[in-house]
Write a structure and sequence with these properties.
Blueprint lengths: L3 E2 L14 E3 L4 H11 L10 E4 L3 H10 L3 H20 L5 H46 L8 H15 L3 E4 L4 E2 H7 L12 E4 L2 E2 L2 H7 L7 E4 L6 H7 L7 E4 L6 H5 L9 E5 L7 H5 L7 E5 L5 H8 L6 E5 L5 H10 L4 E4 L2 E2 L11
Parallel strand pairs: 1-3, 4-6, 5-7, 6-8, 8-9, 9-10, 10-11, 11-12, 12-13
Antiparallel strand pairs: 2-3, 13-14
Length: 356
């Protein structure tokens, strides 16, 4: 098959009539042609060249277009430029922005966690408060018993436990309640040897009632204006060891009767009707070891009479009339005495100590 080369020819178009077809020259001139082209192939068919009108112009156009080698060179040069661009140091701004965004995200998460924990804690506290409030509401209200009922319960407890102490300290009683609930004829109460009534008013009637306790050794009646009649009833209490009547109205004659109590060793008496003369009467109670006079105007002379008591160890005088001369004499001649003046140690008391 004969090869045909038609530069600038489009197969879809027809060849114009004025185109010339030149056949390859004869063999004698083929050598020159082969030399011109630089190639000679034995046995190859002759090449027919078809040159059309305007072929020279088309060749010039083709020569101005990029050859495939030049296009490839440009393609190779483009990646090189990209590589140089990539080799430049990256901009740190985007990285910093990512770090800041990450930190903000962590802070946000932490805040969310704190908020959730606070909400949970608040809910737990609310539940706890609600529970406590509910339990508080369920507790029945405190029932305040009348003194009558309280004394009745107290006496029932004393019967069950066979206690030896009868002590009224947080509610008031009087003669009526005492006689109603304290049945001294009941043998279950005969073991009681200490009666302390710190609240309420007991008169001679109540003292007479208590004096029938066979083992009474300690009697204290505060706020009770016991008189000589009450003292008379106590003379039957031969075991009485401590008598404390700080608010009585006992006279000197009534007090003198206490000398009949052989075991009485501690006496605490307050009475607005007693004077300094009672010191001579008390001095005859030679069994006393402790004496406390409240509101009795004891003078220096009365102090000397009291200090002469052979077994006296403690002497308490409140609101007395003793002068510094009297106290100097006492500490000089009776330094063994434990002395209180108005509920405190005297400055010169050798036995001064702290009270708790």
């Amino acid at each position: 098959m004969t090869g045909v080369s038609v530069p600038g020819y489009n197969p879809g178009e027809s060849v114009p009539p004025e185109d010339e077809v030149s056949e390859t020259p004869d063999p004698s001139s083929g050598k020159d042609a082969a030399q011109d082209t630089g190639e000679a192939n034995d046995g190859d068919p002759p090449v027919v060249s078809i040159r059309t009108a305007g072929a020279d112009e088309q060749e010039e156009d083709v020569s101005e277009e990029q050859t495939p080698t030049e296009a490839a060179a440009e393609v190779v040069e483009q990646p090189a430029e990209d590589a140089e661009a990539e080799a430049e140091p990256p901009d740190p701004t985007p990285r910093l922005q990512r770090i800041v965004a990450t930190l903000r995200s962590k802070v946000t998460v932490k805040r969310v966690r704190i908020f959730i924990m606070g909400a949970v804690l608040l809910a737990l506290v609310s539940v706890l408060v609600g529970t406590l409030t509910a339990e508080k509401d369920e507790v029945p209200p405190l029932v305040v018993l009348r003194p009558d009922d309280r004394l009745e319960e107290m006496m029932a407890t004393l019967q069950e436990t066979s206690s030896t102490l009868f002590h009224i300290v947080d509610f008031e009683i009087n003669d009526r309640l005492l006689l109603k609930h304290f049945d001294v004829s009941d043998e279950s109460f005969h073991a009681i040897d200490t009666v302390l009534i710190d609240r309420g008013k007991i008169t001679d009637q109540g003292v007479i009632h208590l004096s029938t306790l066979p083992n009474l050794t300690h009697l204290r009646l505060r706020e009770s204006d016991v008189t000589d009649a009450g003292i008379d009833s106590l003379l039957s209490c031969k075991k009485l060891w401590i008598l404390n009547l700080p608010h009585s109205r006992i006279t000197r004659d009534g007090l003198a009767k206490l000398i009949e109590l052989p075991r009485l060793s501690q006496l605490r008496i307050g009475s607005p009707v007693l004077t300094n003369d009672v010191c001579r009467t008390i001095a005859k109670m030679q069994q006393l070891r402790s004496l406390h006079l409240i509101g009795v105007p004891v003078t220096d002379e009365g102090l000397r009479e009291l200090a002469a008591m052979p077994r006296l160890e403690s002497l308490y005088l409140d609101d007395s009339a003793v002068t510094d001369v009297g106290w100097d004499w006492l500490f000089e001649f009776h330094p063994e005495l434990h002395v209180h003046v108005n509920q405190q140690h005297h400055d010169r008391d050798p036995h001064s100590h702290q009270h708790h």
